[in-house]
Amino acid sequence: MTGEIQKLAPGLYFVSTPIGAARDITLRALDILASAEVIAAEDTRTLRHLMEIHGVALAGRPLIAYHDHNGEEARPRLLRALAEGKSVAYASEAGTPLVADPGFQLGRAAAAAGHMVTAAPGASAVLCALTVSGLPSDRFLFAGFPPSAEGARRRWLAELAATAATLILYESPRRVGDLLTDLSQSFGEDRRAVVCRELTKRFEEVRRGTLAELAAEFADRAVKGEVVVLIDRAPERAADAADLEAMLCEAMKTLSVKDAAAMVAEALKLPKREVYQAALKLGRDG
Questions:
Q1: What pLDDT score was predicted for residue 237?
Q2: CA dist., res. 246 & res. 267, Å (int)
Q3: Going by C-beta distance under 8 Å and a sequence separation of 6 or more, which residues neighbour residue 156?
């Protein structure tokens, strides 16, 4: 890198790193990595290599490993640096910090101590997968990694089956076939889904289909690389006669038959004429 880098204000800087293509890092992320007084990383070897690719010298600054297995030991050291008025950059191994990443406790502790906490946004497998999936993006839920044990995974999926949003999961390549089979059984074979593999990398792959089709495709397939699974939102439950009657009775306590029918028809996505006839019948019977 060339050019003068301005000194950073004291605080904690979360730095997003590429999920595959090294050039996906942002200029601001490189500026922060070049000028932070202390650098922490989920994987120090990965970050050191990324900095070398972009010509960012460590220049004698501390590079501290901070991950799931050493957080209790490493976090106090980083908090001391913040208390001393230093700028601390934390970089995930790949993607956006705190998304399936151990930075949460560090960010919460820094904020609780009154330190500035900010982020240099960038690559995220969640958003990249959602963008290319072709599934609705106006509402989505990132649910992380499913439990690895079969029984726990099925119970976990059962709780998510009715989610009225595109569902996004991370999964190990070794278990993606089992996950798709369980999804097909829990969510229904015809539910639309997408499997994204190795996003932004040379062998990027996006497979779309029903859960049944994808489960069959991945059942006996050896899969490599990072995997994101997306499932279309749960279909809207059709209203039954009891729902319609109950809503009409409640609405007609304060509204005219016509207005009550219009409101309920809109709420249940039913033809207005059909709901109006039901409201008239209730009025006669009542």
A1: 63
A2: 13
A3: 146, 147
Alpha-helical (H) ranges within 134-201 are 150-160, 176-187
Count of residues making up the chain:
286
Three-state SS at 95? strand
* Cβ atoms 23, 47 nearer than 8 A: no
Q: Who contacts 6 (Cβ-Cβ below 8 Å, separation ≥6)?
A: 31, 35
Query: Tokens representing 286?
Result: 């009542």
Mode of pairing for the β-strands spanning 192-197 and 227-231: antiparallel
| Nearest residue to 277 via CA among 255, 258, 253, 254 | 258
Q: Are 67 and 90 in contact (CB under 8 A)?
A: no
Q: Which residues, listed in sequence order, are joined to residue 118 by a DSSP beta bridge?
A: 13
- 40 beta partners: 64, 90
Entry pTM: 0.80
Distance CA 205, CA 229 (A): 12
State pLDDT tens for residues 1-49.
445 667 899 999 999 999 999 999 999 999 999 999 999 999 999 999 9
Q: How far apart are the first and last CA of the chain?
A: 80
